[in-house]
Write a structure and sequence with these properties.
alpha+beta; Alpha-Beta Plaits; Aminopeptidase; four-stranded mixed beta sheet; 11 strands
């Protein structure tokens, strides 16, 4: 039986020190608590995120090292640049947040096991974050249908990416490229990708030590950026399509 602390439900910010997280499984820090807005914001500010499958108790994680993307280091493949220039999708932000979450939760052909860590508790909790102006989505539309997108949480100058999906080829990649551009326009300096994936590594994401990650959080989450509903900046969108935003 793993010896990990249970959170006090009366103390939304009562997380243990992230340096006490387990090595195996990597980053498991605590169990229990809730997914209230205050607890989630406290967690993200400390580099902690929930990841579990219902009906498990809530599991809280802070892996070491941490995968991040510095927006200025975004890498776009030649084929994706061509797709961006073709501009095959209508884009929007924060117009279908819960729909994006449910699409991310849907079974995927490549999944080895059925089920998803994005359950109804998660959807309800992050919808509340979205309503309060802390969580945001990028949506890709084609012929009036939602075909791709992603969502995450923004605190200060940090964006914590959660999940993405695609129902047609390249939709999630296009959503990601445009989201990075929009985040740059909002002064975001760090994108948290949580754990390593080859897919994000191809975009230029890299692994950094947890202590370095948390030092960046302490600096950038303290910078002014009020929670609000986001809208797509059409000027930045056009810069991406015209190949002027990313070198």
């Amino acid at each position: 039986m793993l010896d990990i602390p249970w959170l006090d439900p009366r103390d939304p910010c009562g997380f243990p020190d992230v340096e006490s997280a387990l090595r195996k499984p990597d980053g498991l820090l605590a169990v229990g608590g809730d997914l209230g807005v205050e607890r989630l914001l406290c967690a993200y500010r400390r580099g902690i995120f929930p990841w579990y499958s219902e009906p498990q108790p809530i599991l809280w994680w802070s892996p070491d090292p941490r995968m991040v993307l510095f927006p200025e280091k975004l890498h776009l493949s030649r084929s994706l640049r061509k797709t961006l220039r073709r501009d095959p999708f209508r884009l929007s932000m924060d117009t279908a947040f819960e729909d994006v979450m449910r699409a991310c939760a849907a079974p995927r052909r490549q999944d080895a096991e059925p089920g998803s860590w994005i359950g109804e508790e998660m959807i309800y909790a992050y919808a509340r974050l979205h309503a309060a102006g802390w969580a945001h989505s990028m949506e890709c539309w084609q012929d009036g249908q939602l075909v791709g997108g992603l969502y995450g949480v923004a605190i200060g100058r940090v964006f914590y990416g959660e999940s993405m999906f695609a129902r047609v080829s390249d939709a999630s990649k296009v959503a990601f490229a445009h989201m990075v551009a929009q985040l740059q326009g909002r002064g975001v300096r760090l994108i948290d990708c949580q754990v390593h994936t080859a897919h994000l590594e191809r975009f230029g994401a890299e692994m950094i030590p947890r202590r370095q990650f948390n030092a960046l959080l302490a600096r950038h989450t303290a910078e002014a950026a009020r929670p609000s509903r986001w809208q797509l900046d059409p000027r930045i969108r056009d810069e991406v399509v015209n190949g002027k935003r990313f070198a």
